[in-house]
Design goal:
Blueprint: H1 12-17, H2 23-33, H3 42-48, E1 52-57, E2 62-64, E3 72-78, E4 80-86, E5 92-99, E6 103-104, E7 118-121, E8 125-131, H4 132-141, H5 143-174
Antiparallel strand pairs: 1-8, 2-7, 3-6, 3-8, 4-5, 4-7
Helix pairs in contact: 4-5
C-alpha cells in the first residue's frame, strides 16, 4: 500500500485500552473529591458507579422544588446550579450557586424530609445523581463502606452547622 492510500483509523476500543480519560474516570475523580466519599478507595467508588444516574437539564429548568421530597445527592458534571429559597411573601433568596465538581442535596441521604430550597439549572447542566434507596441498598450490601459514607455525611453536616453558627453569631454581634 502506498503512503497516499494509508488512512489513520481512530478506534475508541484502542483508546479505552490505553486509558484515555473517560467520563467514568472523571466521575470517579469527582466522587473522590467529595468529603462524603473521601475515605473510600478508588475501587470502592468504582462500585458506586452502578448506582449513579445521569440527568441533563436545560438552562432555567428546575431540578427540584422547595417542598419536594428529598430523594438524592446531586454532583455537577457540567454547568451551574442555583439553590434558592422562597419566603412566605414570595421573595426568592439565592442561597448558593454551584459549579462543576460541586454537590448538593446530601441531607436527603440522611432523612426523608422535604427540600428546604429549590435547585435550578442556571446553564445547560449535566448531573450525576445518587438516589437514597440505591445508596441504602449499597450500604446494606457493603456495611463497612456504608459506615465510611455515613461518617462523611456527618462531617459535611458538622462543617455546615459550624459555618451556620459562625454566620449567625456574626449577624447577632453586628446588630449590637
Amino acid at each position: 500500500m502506498s503512503e497516499e492510500n494509508k488512512k489513520t483509523i481512530h478506534s475508541s476500543f484502542w483508546a479505552n485500552i490505553f486509558h484515555t480519560p473517560t467520563e467514568s474516570d472523571e466521575l470517579v475523580q469527582s466522587l473522590q473529591a467529595i468529603p462524603l466519599f473521601k475515605s473510600l478507595t478508588k475501587k470502592d467508588i468504582s462500585g458506586l458507579l452502578g448506582i449513579i444516574h445521569n440527568r441533563n437539564y436545560i438552562a432555567g429548568e428546575y431540578i427540584f422544588y422547595q417542598g419536594d421530597p428529598g430523594i438524592g445527592l446531586y454532583l455537577i458534571s457540567e454547568g451551574e446550579v442555583q439553590i434558592s429559597r422562597e419566603s412566605e411573601k414570595g421573595d426568592r433568596v439565592t442561597l448558593a450557586v454551584f459549579h462543576k465538581g460541586d454537590f448538593f442535596g446530601e441531607l436527603a441521604l440522611v432523612d426523608s424530609e422535604k427540600r428546604s430550597a429549590s435547585a435550578i439549572a442556571n446553564t445547560d447542566t449535566k448531573l450525576s445523581v445518587i438516589f437514597k434507596p440505591d445508596l441504602d441498598e449499597f450500604i446494606e450490601k457493603y456495611p463497612r463502606k456504608g459506615i465510611k459514607i455515613v461518617q462523611g455525611i456527618a462531617e459535611i453536616t458538622a462543617v455546615r452547622l459550624r459555618t451556620l453558627n459562625e454566620d449567625y453569631f456574626n449577624l447577632r454581634t453586628e446588630k449590637k
